[in-house]
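Q: Please design a sequence for this.
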């Protein structure tokens, strides 16, 4: 997890990046007019005016609900959260940082696109109260802010497109009572709301792309039993289909490892270090064992060579070693990267708009920040970033 690095960011202070999640007023406070550039770099963080021509060949990876892009320029943008003040900031890769409001830490957000303009919007929900609201974004400007009808406390929201119209819809899941529902959206208006099948407290949903049209389905994993299933969605109609069961202790990441625009799943057993890849075609699973790695290795998925296929970044939290597995279906080639030492955590995004995902590192012990601009699965350029206050986090 990356974060900013002292107590108050000052005007013109450069920011580094990290991952985080999470009331509303539009103050512009300590992050206003700060910039997000790569210090001393001959290659700007921004891809420039031709960035869109260098988009990743996999349209899923360019989707504004997957790769946040608030101004539609083809470069990954960021949301900043201040854990002390609740400030929310939008950081565009080619311009200044703008503080757009404040929210308590009980609010979480999901990336969305409610008006189909290919620019990322924000869906906020408060699982303690059941409140939710939509921010329709144009760059760092909130063009529309709409509160939605409250749902039951304990509900968490996920974003999908269940009817394939290019407009984000909302999945509500309440792990306390097992209730689920789908809201079909038209902009910020709920045009249809329907209950979905109930699930138990141990089931966790992930909204995925698993068919060749633009609609999304839902993958469910039971953390207690290892059971798995997918709900094939057609609007608010869910057709559950069982998938193979894994035992407890397996974690998963979704991606597209063969570039067929269908969801695949990487499984990792934190206790044994085993890795397995599921290549999916609908509900048909082709399973391939992968090289085992110890529990000290942590993984992140992205496309580091720009071929439209998901790869895996591995980071060893004990030794600081790093390596990338570049995938072509169920086969991969390994691309070792430099060792950073301990205390470093990563975030990924295409920050220069060249179609390959890059890596942003932050050292939580020293406050150092560095960006690796990737090309072909290798580090094309390493750029130190200025330290920023630790109470700020980015996603």
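A: Design:
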């Amino acid at each position: 997890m990356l974060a900013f690095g002292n107590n108050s960011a000052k005007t013109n202070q450069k920011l580094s990046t990290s991952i985080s999640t999470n009331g509303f007023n539009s103050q512009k406070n300590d992050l206003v007019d700060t910039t997000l550039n790569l210090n001393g770099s001959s290659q700007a963080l921004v891809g420039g005016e031709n960035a869109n021509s260098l988009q990743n060949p996999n349209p899923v990876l360019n989707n504004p609900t997957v790769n946040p892009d608030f101004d539609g320029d083809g470069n990954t943008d960021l949301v900043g959260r201040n854990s002390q003040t609740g400030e929310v900031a939008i950081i565009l890769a080619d311009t200044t940082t703008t503080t757009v409001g404040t929210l308590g830490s009980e609010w979480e957000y999901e990336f969305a696109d409610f008006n189909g303009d290919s620019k990322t919007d924000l869906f906020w929900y408060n699982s303690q109260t059941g409140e939710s609201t939509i921010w329709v974004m144009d760059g760092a400007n909130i063009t529309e802010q709409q509160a939605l009808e409250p749902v039951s406390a304990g509900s968490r929201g996920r974003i999908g497109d269940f009817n394939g119209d290019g407009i984000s819809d909302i999945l509500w899941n309440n792990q306390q009572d097992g209730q689920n529902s789908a809201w079909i959206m038209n902009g910020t208006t709920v045009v249809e709301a329907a209950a979905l099948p109930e699930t138990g407290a141990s089931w966790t949903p992930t909204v995925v792309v698993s068919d060749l049209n633009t609609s999304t389905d839902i993958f469910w994993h039971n953390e207690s039993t290892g059971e798995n299933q997918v709900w094939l969605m057609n609007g608010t109609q869910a057709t559950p289909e069982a998938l193979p069961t894994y035992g407890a202790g397996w974690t998963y990441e979704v991606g597209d490892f063969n570039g067929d625009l269908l969801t695949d799943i990487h499984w990792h057993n934190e206790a044994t270090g085993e890795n397995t890849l599921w290549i999916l075609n609908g509900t048909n699973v082709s399973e391939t064992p992968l090289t085992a790695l110890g529990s000290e290795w942590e993984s992140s998925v992205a496309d580091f060579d720009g071929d439209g296929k998901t790869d895996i970044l591995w980071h060893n939290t004990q030794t600081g070693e790093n390596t990338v597995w570049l995938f072509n279906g169920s086969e991969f080639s390994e691309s070792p990267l430099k060792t950073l030492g301990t205390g470093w955590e990563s975030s990924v995004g295409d920050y220069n708009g060249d179609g390959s995902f890059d890596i942003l590192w932050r050292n939580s012990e020293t406050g150092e920040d560095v960006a690796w601009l990737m090309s072909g699965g290798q580090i094309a350029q390493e750029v130190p970033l200025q330290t920023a206050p630790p109470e700020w986090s980015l996603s």
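Q: Thanks. Anything notable?
A: The longest strand covers residues 131-138. DSSP finds one helix and 28 strands in the chain.
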